[in-house]
Write a structure and sequence with these properties.
mainly alpha, globular, about 525 residues, 20 helices, about 60% helix, two-stranded antiparallel ribbon
């Protein structure tokens, strides 16, 4: 036997620089390729938004109002009122809210106890104050910037929500139908029209829609997630989104309350009604929204001495009345009032002081109803929205079908309740956001954005169902063609209406470009 000397093992080499292997790089490259079309879509729509906001100049944005910045500066100075000091003439008035004294008003400001406030939701101002403090910004940030951020964020949330719905839809819609639905959500009326004037009036509405759609997407993820702990996190995030919506658009308070409770109930039923989970689900789904809503109510108490006073009672502006007698004219204004059609580009206009004249003669019109501002109804400007109306017939048909034995394959309770949540949440969104507006004594185009997002999402689901419903190929082709034409027409109408806005900003800020477009695209014959 021969002894063999074995050398000791060599010490390990010192660690070198970390290098990514080829497989992670390939996975990243595949992810980028898959996401490229979506990124290009979002960038293209955002570029269109910039084009509308800037009146085609790309660099010049008109600042219409600076209310959020004024409130943010108030927060940064340690108080809840604006830093601007009311004039001595206003302070000297015995009744500062008398409309005959409006020459000394600070229009649309809230005047209370010697200070100015805003009556819009405070969430955007809180975010703006935090942003300016963190980054040490001292310049004024106009409300146009806030509106633009909200519109782009709504675009992103709506796109993600539509794609998530498509992934779950059975049978799954074709890719082109998903892309068209995303384009409609992005560009359909009234979004481009609102971008034509980015003031706080639009900011509160679009911000509420942005946070609501974000909450819907997050809540959907929580509803369909099979793992309870992950679902809780999604529901908590959704609740934050809903709470921020109420804190941005105060008319959404009742809708948000109903929506979070409905979401919690559906998730509880999906988990087979486990009582031990009821309180936990309720805490995650309702708690954040409740805290945010309570915080805003507390701000009301600190500012105006009343929990439910948002400042509208002390607004320096024309008073708005509330009553059932305004429902019928508001339904006409927001859904059926036609735009002004001409052969001159951009072909569609919404003029001031025309709503009453465009209404049918038999329509009851209260004498105290204000119809000064431009309005074009959602169903006359957005053909795609008619699909949502058709959804009522579709729902009735499905209910009758379910009553027949063997018509529909059995589905799990989780799937059934998830479907109920989708339709129920969207209906709550539309009804809850539209109902307060139908009671007001005035109509204006921007109010349509309060409920338009919900209607477009319902129309998307109905449209997908109609496209896949026909049993024969010819029927499916016809349905797909109609769906495509309606979607493209809706996108085109919304884009054209963005060239006008409340004050025809292209004519004011870029008349040269508008003249060129009129000359090249108008359909009018020679004079």
């Amino acid at each position: 036997m021969v002894d063999v000397e074995v050398a000791p093992p060599a010490p390990p080499a010192p660690p070198g620089p970390h290098r990514i292997g080829p497989e992670p790089l390939r996975q990243f490259a595949r992810a980028v390729r898959r996401s490229a079309p979506l990124i290009c879509f979002l960038l293209a729509v955002t570029a269109f938004y910039v084009f509308i906001v800037s009146a085609g100049t790309w660099t010049h944005w008109r600042t219409w109002t600076v209310f959020y910045d004024a409130q943010a500066e108030g927060f940064r100075h340690g108080h809840l009122y604006l830093t601007e000091v009311p004039s001595a003439a206003l302070k000297a008035l015995r009744d500062p809210y008398d409309p005959t004294k409006m020459q000394v008003w600070r229009w649309d400001h809230v005047y209370y106890a010697g200070h100015f406030y805003i009556y819009w939701g405070l969430v955007p101002a809180v975010f703006l104050a935090a942003f300016k403090t963190i980054f040490r910004i001292h310049t004024v940030i106009g409300d146009d910037v806030i509106v633009f951020i909200f519109v782009v964020s709504r675009l992103l949330a709506g796109t993600l929500f539509i794609r998530a719905l498509a992934a779950r839809f059975e049978p799954r819609p074709r890719g082109w139908a998903v892309w068209l639905a995303m384009a409609v959500f992005a560009i359909a009326h009234p979004t481009p029209y609102l971008l034509a004037r980015c003031g706080i009036y639009e900011g509160a509405i679009v911000g509420g829609a942005c946070f609501t759609v974000t909450g819907l997407y997050l809540a959907f993820r929580g509803i369909v997630d099979a793992e309870p702990r992950a679902a809780d996190r999604w529901l908590a995030a959704a609740s934050v989104g809903f709470g921020l919506a109420a804190g941005t658009r105060v008319s959404l308070f009742p809708m948000v309350t109903a929506l979070v409770c409905f979401t919690a109930f559906v998730r509880w039923r999906i988990e087979v009604g486990d009582r031990d989970r009821l309180w936990r689900i309720g805490l995650w789904a309702c708690g954040p929204a409740a805290v945010l809503e309570f915080g805003h109510l507390l701000m009301n108490r600190l500012r105006f001495g009343a929990w439910t006073e948002f400042g509208a009672s002390y607004q320096l502006g024309l008073p708005i009345k509330v009553g059932l007698r305004f429902v019928i004219p508001n339904v006409f204004a927001y859904f059926f009032c036609p735009p002004i059609h001409t052969c001159k580009f951009p072909f569609l206009f919404g003029h001031w002081d025309t709503t009453r004249g465009l209404a049918p003669s038999w329509l009851p019109w209260p004498v105290d109803y204000q119809s000064t501002e431009p309005v074009a109804g959602l169903l006359t400007m957005t053909a795609f929205a008619w699909l949502a109306v058709g959804g009522l017939g579709l729902a009735a048909t499905r209910l009758r079908a379910r009553g027949r034995a063997g018509v529909e394959a059995p589905r799990s309770a989780a799937v059934v309740w998830a479907d109920r949540w989708i339709w129920g949440a969207l209906v709550l969104y539309v009804v809850g956001s539209a109902a307060p507006l139908l009671l007001l004594s005035a109509s204006t185009m921007r109010y349509e954005a309060d409920f338009a997002s919900g209607i477009l999402l319902i129309a998307t689901l109905v449209g997908w169902r109609l496209v896949v419903a026909p049993a024969y190929r010819a029927g499916r082709t016809t349905a797909a063609t109609l769906f495509g034409l309606i979607a493209v027409g809706t996108v085109l109408a919304g884009a054209l209406f963005g060239f006008t806005g409340y004050f025809e900003h292209f004519k004011r800020d870029n008349p040269t470009l508008l003249h060129r477009l009129e000359k090249a695209l108008s359909l009018c014959g020679p004079p």
